[in-house]
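FW: tagging you since you asked about this chain on Friday. Here's the raw sequence from the shared folder, copied in full. Didn't touch anything.
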Amino acid sequence: MLLNISNHPSSRWTDQQKKTAKQQFDTIEDLAFPNIAPEATSDEVQLLADEFMKKINQRPIAAVHLMGEMTFTFALVSKLKKVGIKCIASTTNRIVEEKDGKKIVQFQFVQFREY
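HL: got it, structure written out here
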């Protein structure tokens, strides 16, 4: 099973991303990415990563898809890799279109890449 920890629930992934995830990991489960205050200290981020490790250890997972706030992502990936859990990120093509002075950005899934 692939555990998706991001602000992008797998139900909103593109068909290609879902297909790739299911081919590689069979099933997908979502765990919402935490809301991390910009004022949070490094110690608070580490404690939150510890809390997530407890939640993750309760699931039979093959890998964790982790995308989000960088210091939390780094802390959690470090902890997961230390215990041998595979961590992956999505790679995308960023397609930018300018319309009426506004940028419209679309992301096109390419692959999962291991941390």
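FW: The chain has a mean pLDDT of 95.
HL: agreed, and Strands lie at 2-5, 28-30, 63-66, 86-99, 102-114.
FW: great, closing this out.
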